[in-house]
């Protein structure tokens, strides 16, 4: 007799309708992201953008959010779960958005980091290193790796060599009717990732220290795990060139 599957293992594998709902939720999130990037201006507050995100989802017919949106400017981007406040956007700030919505109870999740004006050499390097860590993990999955801790390690080891103890959360998690569901990409995870599940891949680096070097970079995509690889469900560009916004 084969192993009896536990409910979280059954739930992790999405059927076509469930996957279609997740993709639809993600496409709506991508429209909202376009709208908020266009709305950014020097002096606007985090909370104004967070409220605009909520209103935008209502306008697109997806009023239920996966979780309260994260909007962070400047040094606040160093806080992994920053709650939007009265901080105003200023030239030279890093800007981080992390949000998603639900369609028929199935969630989306995405993070993008931008620069409000030309980033410093160090900021460019940090951004490209986070991007590289994400690509290393995705390539691992594409080659058929299904052990969660090995996938996590591919990104963590790369970042760990350059930035000591700086990547302070798991590489990603399953997404479904709740925003964090089994399985999990973590250093000590014993999960084996099944085909048919949707995972986030979200490496990040966070600096809290001298004033001019405070801030963080996180980039997050959702991928569908397939039998022989994976399909990236996130269609928003993330190369450095597109991450640099030019204030008027």
From TrEMBL:
Transmembrane segments: none annotated. SUPFAM superfamilies: Creatinase/aminopeptidase. Pfam families: Peptidase_M24. Residues 22-227 form the Peptidase M24 domain. This is Peptidase M24 domain-containing protein. It comes from Candidatus Nomurabacteria bacterium RIFCSPLOWO2_12_FULL_41_10.
